């Protein structure tokens, strides 16, 4: 992706807001929810994924990254005792998405595997007010002139303009609302992984694609400002560094740069821990660095949990 998130913003007609939206940050900061009670368990789960799960001396990323994700989801599910509506969620793997839209005079399509998608029986409520949505009319989208913003996109012949949420949302499927996408960049070789900026761009494109396909399923294909915006979240990680995103689709009228824009909140490059010492470091028969996890960041864990709880709490 030649310009990462900046390019994705233009393609999806989206205004970027740094940090988490108040609706999510409020969950992180609310001591009454008792999120801090789970911090010790989360740190233990990091140790399990990085140090104990595999018989290998130093587990590879392709092993520990998925294990860490499953461990964190397990902790999130523990909150369903306090919030029973959390049981009305379903994780779907290898869901395909296809969404088509026109931008200026260019027909665009995002399609492919959506990573792991958590679906919900109820949609996430809008995170931006009607006033905030209307205020986006004043926002000027960045252009890349003289470079075309589609310079590095793959050109294909489109024989059918698909808007399809895949097999995840068949008619009558009770968990019919996309909630959160999870992208695990678990390739062991660094060059095979998306860099953080590329990952954020991918997260934005797929959150947008899922929101657009859902909006068209609900409201038809006519371009319009949505009375009820569609919110889709995304979390990306390589097993240590986390990217958090909340996307709000305000409009399906994407052709021109004028009018209401969509909104995305991004909290970038949040470490869950600083270092995993798989084997102790010994110098002259003295242990200088014991095995273990150092620099655990409880706030990063709480952000993961807050996005999971969002729409319920």
From TrEMBL:
**GO molecular-function annotation terms?**
structural constituent of ribosome
The record's Gene Ontology cellular component field reads: mitochondrion; ribonucleoprotein complex; ribosome
Any idea which UniProt keywords this protein has? Mitochondrion, Ribonucleoprotein, Ribosomal protein, Transit peptide
Source species, domain of life: Eukaryota
Compartments (UniProt record):
Mitochondrion
Is DNA damage one of the keywords?
no
| A biological process from GO | translation
Protein family (similarity comment):
Belongs to the mitochondrion-specific ribosomal protein mL37 family.
Protein name as annotated? Large ribosomal subunit protein mL37
Q: What is the lineage of its organism?
A: Eukaryota, Metazoa, Chordata, Craniata, Vertebrata
């Amino acid at each position: 992706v030649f310009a990462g998130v900046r390019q994705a913003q233009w393609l999806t007609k989206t205004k970027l807001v740094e940090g988490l939206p108040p609706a999510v940050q409020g969950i992180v900061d609310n001591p009454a929810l008792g999120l801090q009670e789970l911090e010790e368990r989360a740190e233990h789960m990091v140790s399990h994924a990085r140090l104990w799960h595999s018989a290998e001396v130093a587990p590879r990323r392709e092993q520990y990254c998925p294990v860490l994700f499953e461990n964190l989801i397990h902790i999130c599910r523990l909150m369903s005792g306090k919030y029973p509506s959390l049981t009305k969620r379903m994780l779907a793997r290898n869901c395909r998405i296809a969404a088509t839209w026109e931008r200026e005079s260019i027909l665009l399509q995002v399609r492919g595997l959506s990573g792991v998608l958590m679906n919900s029986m109820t949609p996430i409520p809008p995170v931006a007010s009607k006033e905030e949505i209307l205020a986006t009319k004043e926002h000027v989208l960045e252009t890349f002139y003289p470079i075309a913003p589609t310079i590095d996109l793959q050109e294909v012949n489109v024989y059918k303009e698909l808007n399809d949420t895949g097999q995840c949302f068949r008619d009558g499927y009770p968990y019919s609302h996309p909630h959160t996408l999870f992208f695990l960049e678990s390739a062991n070789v660094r060059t095979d992984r998306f860099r953080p900026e590329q990952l954020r761009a991918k997260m934005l494109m797929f959150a947008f694609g899922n929101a657009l396909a859902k909006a068209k399923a609900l409201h038809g294909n006519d371009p319009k400002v949505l009375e009820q915006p569609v919110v889709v979240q995304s979390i990306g990680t390589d097993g240590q560094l986390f990217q958090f995103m909340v996307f709000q689709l305000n409009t399906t009228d994407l052709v021109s740069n004028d009018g209401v824009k969509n909104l995305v909140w991004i909290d970038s490059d949040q470490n869950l821990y600083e270092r995993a010492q798989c084997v102790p470091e010994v110098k002259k028969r003295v242990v200088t660095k014991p095995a273990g996890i150092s620099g655990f960041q409880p706030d990063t864990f709480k952000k993961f949990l807050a996005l999971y709880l969002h729409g319920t709490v």
